[in-house]
Specification:
single chain; 444 residues; Lipocalin; transmembrane helix; membrane; DoxX family protein
């Protein structure tokens, strides 16, 4: 005799929820809405007029909350390359506080309501596309190995122990184009799966694993995107929590599971059906097609980079260094003497020196340079390695190509005259050879 199999009820989609579910929904509705507001406002074309007022209001709220409540730092540091600054942490605690207070007020004002099924549909919809947008943003640039670049000559010439954990992780990812592209494909797959309701559950599962891995990298290597990556995991877990029972049935209890219904909504009016198609098309165009094309263009530009003539890229040892015509010998205690100079193909470079004229990073002075071959002049500018922040010329020098491997530089640094002779070395870095062996007879 065949009997019907009783299927488990779904969480957050049944007619009535228990009190704990309504309470958690109110909190996460406010919390996730505040967290997503910035991304969605930025996504709207020509929204600068609106966003400037939003950012002003946000900053006022953060500064006021820090001064009167949290006291994280006396002067907050704004997010400039780092997403874990004192400003970001104040905003995080303020968001949690707003969600808690809003949840209490909402519960008191609407405590009799048994469910928020329709409102939950819209929240899941925006969270789903928010996660997809983030996945596309980072995934597409990883496909072309643009987020983490291959270790530069300057980095390879730096002792390993001088690097901070974040830079070590960044170089680890950037070293292998194959691995970085693989992670990009996985993130892009997350975005594509989340775009369509039949595959949204698989997309949410995959997104949780992908962003949990990103979060652990950030936490383990002190990468300053900890708050953002953690909030991404929270968003993914919220989507999965809506399908907790059916996922447990499939993966744990070995029971039949209901079809997913949290992403489905009856678009009865014709204008809603048309609007849905139009909005999704615009989203795919802006979040997928345009970024993919731009990433391809950037990849092609990087692949076609050549030396900044007449300077050949490579490592140059400083054969002689003189200040005011007085030779200066190499010394660990000398802050001005150059030990070696590296020119990169992309117009960047570094000097092994402690001279603060250049941007100091990992015991090297970093710079960007430009060459005027007509006047035979080279201009050095400061460069912040973690952002595109270029300053004015810090040093201008004349140059002379003595031979194919020697360059003579001379010029004024403040009130002192500098004379430098560079000789290009044949130094090779095994790391740059991108070695791979199917057959390995010993541990390399």
């Amino acid at each position: 005799m065949i009997t019907a199999v009783e299927k488990p009820k779904q969480t957050l989609t049944t007619l009535n929820w228990h009190f704990g579910q309504t309470l958690l929904f109110r909190f996460f509705f406010i919390y996730l809405s505040v967290q997503m507001a910035d991304s969605w406002l930025s996504f709207i074309p020509y929204s600068n007029y609106l966003t400037q007022y939003y950012y002003q209001l946000t900053d006022w709220a953060v500064q006021t909350a820090n001064a009167n409540l949290f006291h994280i730092r006396e002067v907050l540091v704004y997010p400039m390359g780092s997403g874990d600054t004192s400003w970001n942490w104040t905003w995080q605690w303020l968001t949690i506080s707003i969600a808690l207070i809003g949840c209490v007020i909402w519960t008191v004002a609407d405590w009799k309501r048994g469910h928020y099924k329709r409102l939950n549909f819209w929240l899941c919809l925006f969270v789903r596309y928010y996660v997809a947008l983030t996945a596309f943003t980072y995934g597409i640039i990883k496909i072309f190995a643009l987020q983490m670049s291959f270790p530069s000559l300057s980095q390879m010439a730096t002792p390993l122990g001088d690097f901070l954990p974040m830079r070590l992780c960044w170089m680890f990812m950037g070293y292998s184009t194959t691995y970085q592209a693989f992670t990009g494909v996985m993130e892009t797959a997350v975005g594509l799966l989340l775009l369509y309701r039949p595959t949204a559950t698989l997309g949410a599962l995959l997104a949780t694993f992908v962003f949990a891995n990103v979060m652990m990298l950030n936490l383990s290597y002190d990468i300053p995107v900890k708050l953002f990556s953690t909030n991404m995991v929270v968003a993914c877990l919220y989507l999965l929590s809506n399908e907790f029972e059916r996922l447990m049935c499939f993966f744990v209890w070995n029971k039949p599971a209901d079809a997913c219904s949290i992403y489905h909504y009856n678009y009865s009016p014709k204008w809603m059906r048309i609007g849905r198609v139009v909005l999704k098309t615009v989203f795919v165009l802006v979040a997928v097609i345009v970024p993919f094309y731009m990433a391809w263009q950037q990849y092609s530009a990087i692949a076609s980079q050549t030396d900044t003539k007449p300077f050949r890229s490579g490592v140059y040892e400083v054969a002689s260094f003189a200040i005011n015509n007085t030779p200066v010998q190499p010394s660990p205690s000398d802050n001005r003497r150059w030990q070696d100079v590296i020119f990169e193909k992309n117009g960047n470079g570094s000097i092994k020196t402690l001279d603060t004229l250049f941007t100091q990073r990992y015991k090297r002075g970093y710079f960007t340079f430009s060459v005027d071959s007509t006047k035979q002049m080279i201009d050095f500018r400061k460069r912040q390695t973690d952002s595109v922040a270029f300053k004015g010329v810090i040093l201008s020098m004349r140059y002379q190509l003595v031979d194919s491997s020697s360059i003579k530089l001379w010029g004024k640094q403040k009130n002192d005259s500098l004379h430098v002779l560079l000789k290009r070395t044949n130094r090779q870095f095994p790391l740059a050879k991108k070695q791979f062996h199917w057959l390995s007879e010993y541990n390399r």
